[in-house]
Amino acid sequence: MKDYKKLFSALCLSACLAACSGGGGGNNTPQNPPRGNQPPQQTPPQGQQPQQPQQPDKGKNPQPQSPESGKKPEQPKLPDSGVNPQQPPKVEAPQPEAKAYFTETVNKDGKNKDMRWNSAKINKNTLPVYNIDFPDAANRKLFKEAVIVGVPSYGIITGKGIHGEIGVYKFDLLASEGFYGYYSDLDKNNNEIINFAYGFNPELENKNIAENISSIYSKKDGFLYKAKKKKSPSDTSRDFGYSRGDVNIEFKNGKITKGEITSTDGLLNLFKIENGESINHLVITPEKDSFITNTDKGIANVHYLNSTKDANDNKYLVGTVDAKGWYGLLTAEKQ
Questions:
Q1: What is the pTM of this model?
Q2: Tens digit of each residue's pLDDT (9 = 90 or more) over 166-202
Q3: Which of 63, 166, 200, 297, by CA, is between 20 and 30 Å from 243?
Q4: Domain residues for 322?
Q5: 3 to 8, 17, 63: CA distances (angstroms)
């Protein structure tokens, strides 16, 4: 009986050991293997069901959509700039700055005494001159205003007590890029003075003029001149006047065969023109009808200008004269 109990106990122990080892064929693979680096599953809050992934409709197979079949996204509309996108915008070339002229002035005190002309970049459209006002004839007080004018131009004053029109500046063209004329100014004693002036684009000048030139130059009212002092101490008239003359110069092989300045009616001989040290220096001698002492000779330092750049035609001559008792401006045109 004791042996039977021992056998029964051994059988029960074997059955328990088999049940604890998983039983059935010796498969040692664990039922729930470790998950590695997978994120832990979140447990939904109490009372909520975990969200199930949406399953595709079994009755429909999704087809890939062609790019042409869908609606194209709208392109943003750019503001209309008026420029054709196929062409680059036009860029205007910068305009060249107007070239400053060579200028010269002369008055009773000498050449280039007006600082406005010495410091400014002057061309035919930017001439610095003055408006002279004469509002009160009783005390003879004059006033001036600095202004800028172009060519051609003519300014007058018609102040109180003035009979007729009195010119205060007048300029005319000389060649395509030149000018000549006169303008009034006031000195430190409030006296009116006359300035003769000219200017030209330096590109017009022919600095290599032949010494054996053979040409005729002439001009109506081509010579402007003025005495530096009044005719007599008793002369109390305003000193705004100047005189004019017609120019006629004939060169033959560089020699002046005829050189004269006459009155505008041709009846009076005012000045004689002769050769100087070079073709650019002309000696001007007053005649008796000019009312200037005939021993007071002046030298005109003249420039020969082409009608246009590189024309080489020596179309004009121009220069100022500063003598002891008078001064002037000479201009003439090739015939």
A1: 0.68
A2: 668 999 999 889 999 999 999 888 888 999 999 999 9
A3: 200
A4: 102-229+240-334
A5: 9, 22, 78
